[in-house]
From TrEMBL:
It comes from Halobellus litoreus. Pfam families: Fer4_15. The keyword Hydrolase does not apply. PANTHER family: FERREDOXIN (PTHR36923:SF3). This is Ferredoxin. GO terms for molecular function: iron-sulfur cluster binding; metal ion binding. InterPro entries: Fe-S_cluster_ET (IPR051269). Keywords: Electron transport, Iron, Iron-sulfur, Metal-binding, Transport.
Length: 80
């Protein structure tokens, strides 16, 4: 499972931070940060979801009010 985070779209509500500890508050930028993620495009980050963290990643994606977080299964199909 892979999570994709569009930092440009983020509006800094930090609801993802409450759902999964892979997201951290960056108060200076007013945006969340996805810890350990790789920047694959400008301001777009991806991270393989660790085993056992799938539910937390799903909650983080669902909690985002602006859909800045997408979740993909192992086949590359978007689930959120």
């Amino acid at each position: 499972m892979k999570i994709r985070y569009d930092r440009e779209t983020c509006i800094g509500m930090f609801q993802c931070v409450d759902e999964w500890d892979a997201f951290q508050k960056n108060m200076d930028a007013g945006k969340a940060e996805l810890t350990g993620a790789t920047e694959v495009e400008e301001d777009v980050f991806e991270l393989e979801v660790p085993d056992g963290a799938e539910l937390d990643a799903e909650f983080a994606a669902r909690a985002c009010p602006v859909d800045a977080i997408e979740l993909y299964d192992d086949d590359g199909e978007q689930v959120i």
